[in-house]
Amino acid sequence: MASRLVFAFCFFSFLLQLEAAKSHSNINNPQITVMGIVYCDICSNNSFSRHSYFLPGCVWLCLSFDVNELGSVFWEEKEFDVNELGVEVRIDCMFNAIAPRTAEQISFSVNRTTNKYGIYRLEVPSVDGVQCARDKAVKSTCRATLLSTSSKACAIPGFQSTSDQISIKSKRANMCIYSLNALSYRPSKRDTALCGK
């Protein structure tokens, strides 16, 4: 009986150590998020004003509204192709990896579409050697560029590209968030009644 208890204790201790090692290795892997917003600069003054709004997109299901013959508004869910709605943004990133004998660079480009709040977001999978939160100097950079918009009312590019970013880092969780400056579109004609001269 005592040998069974010792075996069970050793077995469960081994499982606990294995789980602790797994969670410890996950902490060492960086969690990197790159994000930004796209808005419509209604008054074409190169800033977010009280008349501006975020340019939303849709992932899988969107609400659509219509007016029937009686003048009643009704909402329905419709499925859309992700490329038909929202703003498409190209994200280019370069990360410097820390290797024992060499300096390595990891570069990639991806396209993302804004969500229903006008936010585009990229979750970067764990990259071996990248310690984003532990680096004191900014060695990683990202850039966002407007590609297209589904909005017909606000389709002239304003702020088309940005590489300016705010980096938020957490050493404890080895997590980095790169928040890029806002990108914008504007209408083809300025509404002087709404925005003034």
TrEMBL record:
It comes from the Eukaryota. The keyword Signal applies. Residues 1-20 form the signal peptide. The keyword Signal applies. Keywords: Signal. This is Pollen allergen Ole e 1 family. It comes from Salvia splendens (Scarlet sage). The lineage of its organism: Eukaryota, Viridiplantae, Streptophyta, Embryophyta, Tracheophyta.
